[in-house]
Description:
Number of helices: 17
Strand order of the largest sheet: 1-11-10-9-12-13
Distance between the termini: 87 Å
Number of strands: 14
Amino acid sequence: MIKIMKYGEVSAEEIFARGKTSFDVADIVADIIENVKQNGDKALFEYCEKFDKAKLSSLEVSAEEIDEAFKTVEPRFIEILEKAAENIREFHKKQVRNSFIINEQDGIVTGQKVTPIEKVGLYVPGGTAAYPSTVLMDSIPAKIAGCNEICITTPPSSDGKVNPVILAAAKIAGVDRIFKIGGAQAVAALSYGTETVPKVDKIVGPGNAFVAEAKRQVFGRVSIDMIAGPSEILVIADSKSDPRFVAADLLSQAEHDKMASAVLVTDSMELANKVSKEIEKQLKELPREEIARTSIDNNGKIIVADDIADVIAVSNEIAPEHLELCVDNPFDYLDKIKNAGSIFMGRYCPEALGDYFAGPNHTLPTSGTARFSSPLSVDDFVKKSQYTYYTKEALSKVAEDVAFFAEKEGLSAHAKSATVRFIDEAK
């Protein structure tokens, strides 16, 4: 049963507590990374047999396997994938940054150039569910950014095959290479490279505790998008909200995994009670009832505040991954939302729209990191270099200023590097 608590009557620690998001796997992951680093493909084959129960003849998915998988996916789903891909492309095209140049002063040019990251690796989870949506969300922005090589790693099933819908989505998105590798070993392979898997420059995508820890450990050798925790949803709903809608939206995240978090914040105790009853009713209808029930019982909560201002304050403090504004005129409140990964506006905008179809990215900051980080975007797949050009005349006008500044920091060699170019002229 989901917990109901009154804001102001229970401790802030209880209101804002998050469920345990992971367990300590650092040593296990470190061993896996070192093994892959030292033994390459051999280690990957062994881990695949151990963890995925699959004895592979090849780590890479062949073009024939992709074409065969594409044919097995029902045409209607292919059509939906293509529609979703187009929505994602249109949204992310707006994020493209341009290089710029400033040459407003004689003899001085400064600027910034935007360059795609050369090689990126996308981790696509497997296990209890297949996520073709993650393929689209992670690879399309990379494609728009202009990355030269886009690789996917995803765990195979016990028959050694990758789920056909994953391969279909990869083909639609234009992924270059796909590897049958999951877990921390996939992150290690992408970070160090093996005989088969190329070393990449950046790794993105969600995963379990082992994947998250592996990304943490390889950060610095490669770039990563974020350390993603369990999925979260926070629904802001008023007394006019339909409890069936709210319960269904909370359960849409609770069914992800047992550590997922579903929170309702409302100014109506009546709605809180109705949603609690509706959750119990809908739970019994879910194929993934056990997972969703564990999530609701352990990490779910309904917080009742006195008014909408307090409701929004609670939401901003929690900084959820997904935020639904189930109110009339949601745009009236948009500027008041300071911390959220992705915001879903109005009573007919379930978070599932964002997971699959609408266009904005679904790889989002979790565990309160929306206070300082952003959804995955085209920006994640480019880097910026700045440049400066001064003529001799332009430098001569500021050399003494540069030198004076450098001397204030006690760096006389810095100072001399600006003035040495004019010593002969001063004689």
